[in-house]
Amino acid sequence: MSALPPPATPRHRQILAHLQERGYASNEDMAQQIGVAVQTIRRDVNQLADQGYLARHHGGASLPSSVENIAYTERQVLNQHAKDAIGQVAASLIPDRSTLFINIGTTTESFARALTGRRELRVVTNNLHVAAIVSGRTDFRTIIAGGFVRPHDGGIVGASTIESLETYRADFGIIGISGIDEDGTLLDFDMDEVMCARTIIRNSRRVILLSDNTKFARHPMGRVGDLSDIDDFVTDRMPPPAFLARMKAENVALHIANP
Question: InterPro entries under this entry (predicted)?
Answer without folding.
Answer: Carb_Metab_HTH_regulators, DeoR-like_C, DeoR_HTH, NagB/RpiA_transferase-like, Tscrpt_reg_HTH_DeoR_CS, WH-like_DNA-bd_sf, WH_DNA-bd_sf
